Amino acid sequence: MVSDIIEKALNEQIRIEAESSQIYLAMASWAENQGFEGVASFMYAHSDEERMHMLKLVKFVNERGGHAQVSALVKPPVSFGSFKEMFQTLFDHEVMVSQKINDLVGITLDQRDYATHNFLQWYVAEQIEEEALARNILDKINLIGDDKGGLYLFDNDVKLLVGAVEAPQ
Ligand code: OFO
I need a labelling partner for 127 at 20 to 30 A (CA). Which of 47, 52, 152, 168 fits? Predict the structure, then answer.
């Protein structure tokens, strides 16, 4: 059984994961509009992955006797000045999510809820990967700058990364 404190904290994380999914969906749509198919497929896949992160939490909360909530979401940014700006937003967002997961893990220790603590280890590991992937892409885009040819090749490269984004379950 989850305590009220843990239930509230997990529901907050459900909202964050849902917002993440919307953020990446908005990025996918923007990239698709710019004609960057590789980046768009990467973002669509990432959006699905975030939904999977959310669903995993929903199921866990309900299995543990809580009530997973579906909340109102903040509207994500829908357009960007450049790919660099978009990937910087993505990276900053993932750093924020990692911080939220860390806070959540801290709460489970305070509450001596070792089952939830154990469950959250998957998210801890996932955030390490997500941050590394976002940093890697950002490094590449910083090298390319606004060079059109470079961006074209980058778009093809990013297509290959789509397989690296875990398929939604
Ligand atoms: Fe759910 O990991 Fe990104 O935000």
Answer: 152
